[in-house]
Amino acid sequence: MTSVTRRQNHDHERRSAATEAKLLSAVERLLGAGESFTDLSVQRIIEEAGVSRATFYAYFPGKPDILKRLAEKVRDASLALAQQWDPGAGEDGADRYTRFFEDVLALHRAHHPVLSAVREVATYDSAVRDFYTADLEGFDEAVLATLLQQQHVGATPADLDAVAASRVIVWGGAQAMARHISVDDGSGDAALARELGRIWWYGAYRRPAG
Fold first, then answer.
1. Are 75 and 136 in contact (CB under 8 A)?
2. Taking the model in full, what pTM does it have?
3. Fold assignment, 1-60
4. Cα–Cα dist 130/128, whole Å
């Protein structure tokens, strides 16, 4: 009986994951085709996904929730990239940061319609705004922690204001990437990644002491 119950639970989880994936993919396709998330109706989403309205609301209380779920996937992938980097690993940090930003730009470019929708909806929906803010605050805290650790071991100058520096490079970097992707066809990605890498490394982590 235990094995049958376990198998039934596994089948249910698999079907649930598949249904959620259909809804998420439908919204990504619609946004990628140029539809505005604000104007996108639940009816349009369920028609694209091939599910019922009841099924939609069984997985997502409302449209903002499906957008947050899509953005979470991008955030988790970005965090996974960030966690691979160690400022004390002994390699050229500017080059390592350049490779990191190349990966982040590729990820953000692939999901640009979703991220643009998040920024759009954040202007009028407090839940999405809080999610977007908390997302960047998480990166801000992570960068601050590495700056403080590097100051502790003497690799980053003590006169650096780590709190201000982490805000500048995280929040400013996010805006720079969003703007770049909206106006560049991808040919300038390597150059932007290089400049971001050097600004982060030489402007904060290895800035000359005052």
1. no
2. 0.80
3. Arc Repressor Mutant, subunit A (1.10.10)
4. 5
